Amino acid sequence: MKKRKIGISKWFIALILAAALLFGSVPAAYASGEPEQVTFAVSAVLPENQINETVSYFDLRMQPEEEQDLAVTVYNQGTKEIKVRAEAISASTNANGIIDYKTPDKKDETLKIPFSEIAEVKTPVLTIPAGGEKTAYIHVSMPRSLYDGTVLGGIVLTQEKEPEAAEETKQGVVIQNEYSYVVGIKLSETDVEVLPEFEPVEAVPGIENYHAAVTHYIRNREAAIAKDISLAIEVFRDGKQEAVKTSAATVDMAPNSVLPYPILWEEELQPGKYVSHVEMEMDGRTWEMDMPFEITAQAAQEIATGSVDTEPGLPWWGILLIVLVIVLIVILLLLLAAVKRKKRNDPDENTRAGRRK
């Protein structure tokens, strides 16, 4: 009987060790890579119709149907030949409340003259020898109608990387660093003062940087740059007086653009109807607006699944494995109890025990 007891104990220990190995191991993942040094610089060649000569970007007074070539000098400060790509981008507003000159294809319905549509890059790629310089040329064609307000955009100059410059992590993810310069371009045709005007678009529940969030889309519908806007948002459940979330920030907005301002929830979104009260203030002017939205049960579930704010549940196979281990442990315990009972009730075993005494 003693040998059976030892065998069962070994199986019991083996099962415990197996369970520990299954549920105690966590795969590690990381990325590594050392950024390369920027080896080029840029300088705008300011023309005679530059309004503000104290700035390093283009601030130009244009006329209807006027055409003009703008020049940006690119310097290769490195010891190898480089290629630099040039693009014309219309200004927009990003989620951080910063005017964005680098993201293409963000055109609001109120934007009448996108800079990217009136600018043509004549030199899309520059090949610059070590220690040398080249000039990027951008041809601007103004529309026929006189335009009040500001057309805002930028020339983005990006150094192209050689294929061998890409780094691969241990997980097989390719990391390729790119370095860019942006030369801002501000165009106007008149001295008519155009002031920003803000209006709500919509509030949408979703995911922002892997967190549950409600993004508030607010439009600047005028052709005017808006700087240092004080933004405050309070979110209420429908019919409740106490705010469930609040947020405040100072933001800038490009002309005729939409600010996608997210409020991170930092917990699971609860289904229901909500309303966000928005207050904005700039240069002594104020705006107030309400932005209602609804979180459906399906949307809440989908967001919870993709958000890091929710503790992930065990997959079905994990639950099944736990149940199987528990069942096996219970069976082993019952077997051990049965063996002990049999020992107590076995007269031969008791006799041998008496003789050993």
TrEMBL record:
Signal peptide: 1-31
Membrane-spanning residues: 316-339
InterPro entries: WxLIP_HBD, WxLIP_PGBD
Source domain of life: Bacteria
Keyword vocabulary terms for this entry: Membrane, Signal, Transmembrane, Transmembrane helix
Residue stretches making up the WxL Interacting Protein peptidoglycan binding domain: 40-158
WxL Interacting Protein host binding domain: residues covered: 170-304
Protein name listed in UniProt: DUF916 and DUF3324 domain-containing protein
Organism from which the protein derives: Christensenella massiliensis
Lineage: Bacteria, Bacillati, Bacillota, Clostridia, Christensenellales
